[in-house]
């Protein structure tokens, strides 16, 4: 082949990428970049969704450090895990989420790269069983939920779930939407510490959701990403357990990234119940996982297993997690005390709340006051401290007075 022909062939190969369209930058990462580049010493970051302590650090739990030291000293191989992952990790994680009653029965679990991997695996499983299956997604939700499901081939049906202006769940809208769903549709539910609103259903609302799920023949996909950071470890699993005690089919995406501080390690799990299709579902989960990441990463799951196998380490971890939870609650109470318009934040749970701010007001918070949040008004409560709350409240008041919604 001549040099000219080779050059033409090389240029023609680019046709593979001709159909790609430019994609917008991730909104949260864009906010983080602007924050880093802001020279103002008084700037406040309530955008990035990670836990921070009173010094603005995302700490490594002491229990995790101890487990990692033990792992370093005792691990005798780096060979692959199977596609299921670390069985000991799954066995210890399951009762933490599901307890030991009916909710824990008949669940098949696999280790995943974070809760995001669990969500994608669940979506791929749903699309394999029913191509183009519909998933019902309350709005607002974590911004990556809808793209994960759409990329896997599911049809995403949105409905109103929370009203930022009233700071309340629009529960009637949720029930109305789900009563219009069809048998075999999936419904995404936040297990606790709703992202972005912090507003969770009460026990009776969970029971009403369960009744509709049973009546309509729906499959719940419960995203439990913040267990222990809301009302407590047991309390944050209560809604999930109400659902799982009643249904024959369910999927649960679990993340250890937040409650074990394993953000970098991408440690999660997918648990699935399919009582009439248990074996075929199991084999399909393993096939999808094998094709997606082959074998899951080991380190984070092994460290979680070591913590949950050791009574002293478990007690240490629980104490540290409770310290995180109480700090979040204290910041909520301080915000509510700082401005009566922020009072609903007191009763919300977890790392996030969502202010009723327009994009122009969010921009004014950033431009005029150095307060960085995502464009939809979501704030990370952990980004605040007792020292910065007065400045945050003053900025909030100024923006409400000086700009139009």
Quick gist of this model?
45% of the residues lie in helices and 14% in strands.
Radius of gyration computed on alpha carbons: 23 Å
Fraction of residues in helix: 40-55%
Backbone shape: globular
CATH class (first level) name of the largest domain: Alpha Beta
Report the CATH topology name of the largest domain.
Aspartate Aminotransferase, domain 2
Q: How are the strands of the biggest sheet laid out side by side? A: 2-10-9-8-7-3-4
Q: In this structure, how is the largest beta sheet organized?
A: 7 strands, mixed
The helix count comes to: 15
Structural category is alpha/beta
Task: State the fourth-level CATH superfamily of the largest domain.
Answer: Type I PLP-dependent aspartate aminotransferase-like (Major domain)
Q: Low-confidence parts lasting 5 or more residues at pLDDT below 50?
A: none
Terminal CA distance: 65 Å
């Amino acid at each position: 082949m001549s040099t000219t022909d080779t050059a033409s062939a090389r240029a023609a190969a680019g046709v593979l990428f001709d159909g790609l369209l430019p994609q917008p930058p991730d909104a949260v990462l864009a906010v983080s970049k602007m924050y880093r580049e802001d020279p103002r010493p008084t700037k406040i970051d309530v955008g990035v969704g990670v836990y921070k302590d009173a010094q603005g650090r995302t700490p490594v739990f002491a229990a995790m450090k101890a487990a990692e030291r033990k792992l370093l000293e005792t691990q005798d191989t780096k060979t692959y895990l199977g596609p299921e992952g670390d069985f000991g990790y799954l066995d210890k994680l399951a009762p933490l989420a599901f307890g030991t009653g009916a909710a824990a029965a008949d669940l098949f679990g696999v280790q995943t790269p974070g809760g995001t991997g669990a969500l994608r695996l669940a979506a791929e499983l749903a699309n394999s069983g029913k191509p183009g299956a519909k998933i019902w997604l309350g709005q607002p939700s974590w911004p990556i939920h809808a793209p994960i499901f759409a990329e896997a081939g599911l049809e995403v049906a949105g409905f109103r779930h929370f009203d930022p202006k009233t700071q309340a769940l629009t529960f009637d809208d949720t029930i109305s939407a789900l009563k219009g769903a069809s048998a075999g549709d999936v419904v995404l539910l936040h297990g606790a510490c709703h992202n972005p609103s912090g507003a969770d259903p009460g026990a009776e609302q969970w029971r009403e959701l369960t009744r509709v799920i049973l009546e309509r023949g729906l499959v719940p996909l419960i995203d439990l990403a913040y267990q222990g950071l809301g009302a407590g470890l047991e309390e944050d699993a209560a809604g999930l357990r109400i659902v799982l005690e009643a249904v024959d089919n369910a999927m649960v995406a679990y993340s250890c990234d937040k409650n074990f501080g394993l953000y970098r390690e991408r440690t999660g799990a997918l648990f699935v119940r399919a009582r009439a299709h248990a074996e075929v579902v199991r084999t399909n989960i393993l096939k999808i996982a094998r094709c997606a990441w082959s074998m899951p990463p080991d380190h984070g799951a092994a460290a979680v297993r070591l913590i949950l196998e050791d009574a002293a380490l478990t007690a240490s971890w629980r104490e540290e997690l409770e310290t995180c939870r109480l700090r979040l609650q204290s910041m909520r109470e301080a915000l509510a005390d700082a401005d009566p318009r922020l009072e609903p934040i007191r009763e919300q749970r977890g790392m996030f709340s969502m202010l009723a701010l327009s994009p122009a007001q969010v921009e004014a918070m950033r431009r005029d006051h150095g307060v960085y949040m995502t464009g939809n008004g979501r704030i990370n409560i952990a980004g605040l401290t007792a020292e910065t709350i007065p400045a945050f409240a003053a900025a909030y008041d100024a923006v409400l007075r000086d700009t139009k919604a």
